[in-house]
Design goal:
alpha/beta; TIM Barrel; 11 helices; 8 strands; 14% strand; globular; binds phosphoenolpyruvate
Length: 254
């Protein structure tokens, strides 16, 4: 049995007071939904405020990125040790980090190792560009990213993966449930090759890319899909609640 995880990646949105208002608008309804791990990933500056608001609830907190060094002269960066006392999850290797901040598979790997070392659960994002899919390179790109992110990682314990095809992120053009399931099977197969099927079978793998309350069931009813990493829709309280509700309903039937 794998954990079903719905995580909201707020990206670079919300001031601290907006973040607090958003949590207050969702907190009680999310808390009432069972069987789904609910993770909020606000900007760094709101982590403490959000943490206070979800203390004593089942809601979990995640950061959207971090540096791989524990401390030092890295002006403006946030370290794994700083996050370890605050959150349970950290999103790593998001395609926006890879695209706009030059994060390579090697950097993502250093971050994954650093997160695991301090007890954080990394949500490792992988995904292909549209032209890569069209050229038939999807499998090669995905397996390279998975292998790269996990290099020297001793076990898959605490690892979460998010399959996010870049062409589906923020575009309103989601993958189909079948497309996402097929690619996630490739990811699980690659992890099985590296760590054995027993470990690979335990890793929650999310789909991300234009997920809404209206389409989440299409993904969650698939055999290999264990949740969603939600961008835009996680900034709307009613929509995020609907996504978690739909997920719980589908999971109940799975
Ligand atoms: C994301 O940022 O991880 C994401 C999937 O965004 P959206 O849901 O807006 O496509």
């Amino acid at each position: 049995m794998r954990t079903t995880i719905i995580a909201g990646n707020w990206k670079m949105n919300t001031t601290v007071s907006e973040a607090m208002a958003l949590v207050k608008a969702m907190r009680n309804k999310l808390e009432a939904i069972n069987g789904v791990e609910k993770v909020l990933c606000p900007p760094f500056v709101s982590l403490t405020a959000v943490r206070e608001l979800i203390l004593n609830s089942s809601l979990k907190l995640g950061a959207q990125n971090m540096h791989f060094e524990e401390k030092g002269a890295y002006t403006g960066e946030v370290s794994p040790l700083m996050l370890a006392g605050l959150c349970q999850y950290v999103v790593l290797g998001h395609s926006e980090r890879r695209q706009y901040f030059g994060e390579s598979d090697e950097i993502v790997n250093k971050k994954v190792q650093a997160a695991l070392k301090v007890g954080l659960k990394p949500i490792i994002c992988v995904g292909e560009k549209l032209e890569e899919r069209e050229k038939g390179l999807m499998e090669e790109v995905i397996t390279r990213q998975v292998k790269g992110a996990l290099a020297s990682v001793p076990s898959l314990e605490r690892v979460v993966v998010a399959y996010e095809p870049i062409w589906a992120i923020g575009t309103g053009r989601a993958a189909t449930g079948e497309q996402a399931n097929d690619t996630i099977s490739i990811i699980r197969h690659e992890m099985g090759r590296l760590y054995g099927a027993a470990q690979a079978d335990m890793v929650p793998i999310q789909y991300g890319g234009s997920v809404t309350g209206a389409n989440v069931a299409e993904f969650l009813c698939q055999k290999e899909i264990d949740g969603a990493l939600v961008g835009g829709a996680s900034l709307k309280a009613d929509e995020f609640i609907a996504i978690v509700e739909q997920t719980a309903a589908v999971k109940g039937k799975k």
